[in-house]
Amino acid sequence: MQDVDVRERPLTDLFGDLVRELGVLFHNELRLAKTEMVEKTSTVGRNVGLVSAGGALGLAGVLALLGAVILVLSNVMPLWFSSLLVGLFVTSIGYFLIQKGLTALRQIDLAPRETVQTLKEDKQWVKERLQ
What we know:
The chain is mainly α.
């Protein structure tokens, strides 16, 4: 840009500059929002994948162990009752774990906080430029 005083430039030039600067600013804000959301969603996706893989492997082991517990308990009580007790116990633990996981997922903030903050700053900048 030239070293011309703003008061000496035509109003149309000043508005043209403002529109161009707002376009660049808007483009940069969109890029920031996209980057922020990609980072957050990839982190959530990665963690959900780990939980799923661990759950699948754990399930196979738990099923084998539960079968052994049911067989041991069937020596002191009817087989149907030992199966019922073990089933209720395992279901209770599963419910607790699901609730804990859902609570943790609800606490993850997916809002693009940096973008919101810079948009507030941009709004103030535009107000100052229009004065």
